[in-house]
């Protein structure tokens, strides 16, 4: 497929299936197969936190990505069914934490429903009006909410980055095949 044909195909695609397609298999992948396929894609693991009505809220997201360098924008997706999102969506500011490779337990904690995610052993701080900042992460970005758009059964949340912090001594946590792990670089060829 040429670049022009790929662009033309992309322009005709609506909600994951080709507009006007006569292919009987177009758009027929079930959600279990879809998740199984995407489990083969390694993703960084983030915890997103906010302060709502003076109380901390947070969730785990592996859908984090950069959007733009100028202005500095990042995004993540959150399920429409998330009980945390019901509260978090009211926050104008949030922090995205790039979890360190020793924080798999924290990632699981922030993905678990019905618990106080900020109770010990979670370590965190905040200033008088900022989002909670988790301790021990490889980096974090404090963002102002820029855009929120519903996309099918998820919300796309875009934030404008106001501040960042990096801990060079920490390596990132990755998620692959439904488990957490770490990145090991391949040896460089001589």
From TrEMBL:
GO molecular function, one term: riboflavin reductase (NADPH) activity
The keyword Transmembrane appears for this protein: no
UniProt feature, compositional bias: Polar residues: 1-20
Oxidoreductase found in the keyword field: yes
Keyword field: Oxidoreductase
Domain Flavin reductase like per the UniProt entry, residue ranges: 38-182
Pfam families (UniProt xref): Flavin_Reduct (PF01613)
SMART domains: Flavin_Reduct
Disordered: region residues: 1-28
Family designation: Belongs to the non-flavoprotein flavin reductase family.
Protein name (database record): Flavin reductase (DIM6/NTAB) family NADH-FMN oxidoreductase RutF
Organism of this sequence: Murinocardiopsis flavida
């Amino acid at each position: 497929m040429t670049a022009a044909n790929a662009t033309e195909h992309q322009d005709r695609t609506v909600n994951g299936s080709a507009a006007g397609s006569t292919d009987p298999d177009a758009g027929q992948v079930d959600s279990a197969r879809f998740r199984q396929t995407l489990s083969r894609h390694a993703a960084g693991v983030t915890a997103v936190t906010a302060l709502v009505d003076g109380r901390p809220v947070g969730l785990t997201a592996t859908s984090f990505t950069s959007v733009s360098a100028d202005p500095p924008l990042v995004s993540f997706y959150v399920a429409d069914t998330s009980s945390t999102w019901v509260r978090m969506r009211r926050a104008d500011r949030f922090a995205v934490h790039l979890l360190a490779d020793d924080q798999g337990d924290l990632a699981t904690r922030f993905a678990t429903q019905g618990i106080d995610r900020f109770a010990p052993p979670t370590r965190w701080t905040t200033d008088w009006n900022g989002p909670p900042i988790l301790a021990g992460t490889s980096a974090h970005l404090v963002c102002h909410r820029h855009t929120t758009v519903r996309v099918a059964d998820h919300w796309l949340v875009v934030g404008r980055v106001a501040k960042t912090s990096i801990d060079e001594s920490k390596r990132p946590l990755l998620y692959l095949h439904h488990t957490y792990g770490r990145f090991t670089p391949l040896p460089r060829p001589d």
